[in-house]
Amino acid sequence: MDEVIYLLQAKNSTNDIGDPIKTLEKKKRFAEKLEIGQREFYQAAATGLKPEIKFVIWKWEYNDEMYFEYKGRNYKIIKTYERKIDEKVELTGTSVTNKEVMAYGSTESSKNN
Question: Between 59 and 12, whose confidence is greater?
Fold first, then answer.
């Protein structure tokens, strides 16, 4: 696993005067970049999805995050696949903006990794 991705979670918190704000929590993960196969690409396109990038990480490092960052770009996770043979999970993503990442909601998880 020679690539670095950041799993992204939006968290609800408050600023110094008590106003609700969203902050973005990043969890660094080492990953292996995979190719998106032609068959997978066309099957996804038939359902309106546009897979652009795919990584595999250890399944215990993934906590149902909806987004990840790679080389400064944000991606929405449009498909996950848990591989039974090696305890890893594949994350397939499509490009999004940072604004979309911050708008998706909050979680209660506060792991610091």
Answer: 59
